[in-house]
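In response to a reviewer's request, we include the raw inputs and outputs for one of the modeled complexes. The two entities were modeled together in a single run.
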Amino acid sequence: MEPTAAPASVEPILKARGLWKVFGDDPQRLFESDLKSESKEKIQEKTGLVVGLRNISFDVHKGEIFVLMGLSGSGKSTLIRNLIRLVDPTAGQIHIGGREICAMNEKQLMNFRRRSTAMVFQAFGLLPHYTVLDNTAYGLKIRGMPEAERNKIAMEAIRTVGLEGWEDYYPSSLSGGMQQRVGIARALAADPEIMLLDEPFSGLDPLIRRQMQDELIQLQSELHKTMIFVTHDLQEALKIADRIAIMQDGEIIQIGTPEEIIASPASDYVQEFVRDAYPATVLTAGTIMEDPEPEIHVWQGPQVAHTLIHRSKRDFAFVLDKQKRAVGFLSHRALDDLIRRGGNSLEAAMDVEFETCTPEMTVEELFPLATASPHPIAVVDEKGKFIGCIRNTTIIESMIQDEPEEKEGEGDV
Amino acid sequence: MFEFPEKLYVPMEKWIDAIMDWILVNMSGIFDAIGGVILKILIVIEQTLLWLPWPVILLLIGAAAWRSMGKWWHGVIMAGLIFLVGVFGYWDDSMSTLAVVIASVAVSLLIGFPAGIIMARRDKVQATLQPVLDAMQTMPSFVYLIPAMMLFGLGKVPAVFATVIYAVPPIIRLTDVGIRGVPESVVEAARSFGASDRQLLFDVQLPLAFPSIMVGINQTTMMALAMVVIASMIGARGLGLEVLVAINRIEVGHGFTAGASIVFLAIVIDRISSAFARKQQKHLS
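The model returned the following C-alpha cells for the whole complex.
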C-alpha cells in the first residue's frame, strides 16, 4: 500500500457534512433549543434525547480504504448505516457521487442502493435458504438482472474470493471465514461505487481474521475499490487503512493516515488506543532514520574523514560517491586503523557490504535487513541518493512504546 | 351493604343482542353469500373424499407419511390408523369430518396468512390484534356456536364459520412471529442491497418464516379438528355427532370407538403436518 495523500483538487466520492443522529421522541427539538453544543450527558438529562452522532463531517476519496474506528458505542456502526440511510440521520448532508442521499425518496434511495453501494456485515447477513451462488448474485437479482447473466458475474466474484467449488453449498455448511467471503463476494458482484464494511472480520477467529485482512489488502491492490471499513480494532485499522477516522462518543476526534495517528495522537483517547498498537507495521524507515551527516566522500583523505566523524559524535559514516550514492560503510575503528597504517584511500578501510532500504519501508520489513548485516542500514531515495541511516538499536527502540509521561522528555531512551 | 349495587347494572347483553339483530336484518345478504361460497367449497371437498375409493385414500395417507416422516413403516402405521377408523364403521363420518376440517383450514389460511403478514409489518396492528387473538383463544369455544348459528342457521356452514374463528389465531400469530423472527442482519442486508418491501417479503421473510408458518398450519389444523367435534352440536355431521349421540344414549362402547376414531384422525394429521414443518427447517438454521 502506498500512502495516499489524495490530491486536494479531486472531488471526493463521498462528502458527509454536519451529520447528527439523535435518538428519542421528536429529535428536531434539539436543534431548535440552544442545547446543541452541550455535552451528551447534559442533553440527555435536560431533554431525554440521546445523541448518537454529533456534527460529523468527512470526505472519502475514490479508491481509498477509509476506516472508521472506535469502541463499541462510539457511533461508528450508526454512522456507516446513516450513509445509505439504513438509519436516517437527524440532520446534515451526505453526498455520494454528487447525489444528495438525505433528499432522496424511498424509490430513489432503493435504486441508489442497488447501483451505488454494497455492504458487508459483521453477522454476514447471508440468506440461509440460498446457495453460495444465489447469495452472491442476490444484489444483481434485486436489480432484475436475468439469471444467466447474474450467475456469470457471481461466479467471477466467487472465484475472486477463492470459493470456487462451493457455489452450490448452503451458508450453514460453511465456516465463519468462508461465509464472510460470500458476504464480500456478494458486495463485489454488485460492483458498487462504494463498499461499506461493518466490522466484517470481528466475528472471526484471530488467525482467520489476519488472513482475511491480508486477502482484502491483496484484493484492494488489484481492484482499487472505494471502501468504508468499520472496526474497533486499531491493529486492523492500521493494517488496512489509507486513512483512519477515530470516533468517540459519536464524534470524529481525529482523521489521518495510520502513520499520522501513530506518530501524533490527537488526544489522550487516541493515545490510549495507539499504546496497544504494534508500530512495526506502521512506522516507516523515513520516520525513524537519522540524518545523513556527516557526508564523507570517497575522494576525501582519512584525516578529514576522522575530523568529520569525530565532530558528528558518531562512530561511523557512510562513504558517498559523486552522485551522493552510498558506496561503503566506514567505522571509526577501521578509520583509526587506516590512519595508523598510514593508508591514504578511504576505499581501503570501508566495508562495501551493507544493506540499503527506501524510506517507505516499514520497520517490520527492516528486521531481516538488520539481521543480515552488523552495520547500520543506509536509507536511499528512488535515485539511489543517500538520505539517512538507521542503526539496529534504533529499530529496536522504535518497538518500545513510550509511556505518555516519558514522552514529555527525550525521544531517545 | 356489600352486595354489588343493582343501579350499576348495564344491559350489555341486550345491546349485543340488538347489534346481532341489526346485523341479521340488514346484512343477511352478505352472510348468505359467504355461506353459499363456504357450502360450495365444502361440498366439493366432501364429494371428492367420498368419491375416492378407500384404498386410494389409505395409499395417499401412507405415501404422505412416508415422504414426510422418512420411514416406510411410518406410512404403514398412519394408513393403519385410518384403516381402523373404517373398521370401527366410521369411514363416511370421518370423511365428512375431514371435509369440514379441510374447508375450515383453507378459509383460516386465506384470512390468517395475510393478516399475519400485515401484523408483522406494522407494530400498531400487532398491538391491536394481539389482545383480540388472546381473547379469541381464551373464549370458551361453545360461545362461537351461537353467532354462527344465528348467522348461518344449522348445518355445516355455521360449523365451518365457528371453526374458523376458533382456529385462525395460531396461523396469524405464527406468521407474525415467523416474519419478526427473521434475523435483523439478513433483513438489513437485503435492504442494503436495495430490496423493495415486496422483494424483502418474498425472497427473505416468507421463506425464512416458513417453518414457523408450518407450525401455525399444524396448530390451526389441530384446533379445527377439536372445534369440528364441538360444532356437531349445531348440525355438523361426522365423528363429533357420533360422540354426541353416544353421550345422550350413554353408550360406552359407541362413545369409545367414535372417540378413538377422532384421536386417530388427530394423530395422523398432526404427525404428517408437523413432519412436513420440520423438514422445512433443515438448512434454515
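As requested, we also summarize the result in words. Chain A has a mean pLDDT of 85. Chain A touches chain B at residues 84, 86, 110-115, 117-119, 121-129, 138-139, 141-143, 170, 172-173, 186, 190, 196 (CB under 8 Å).
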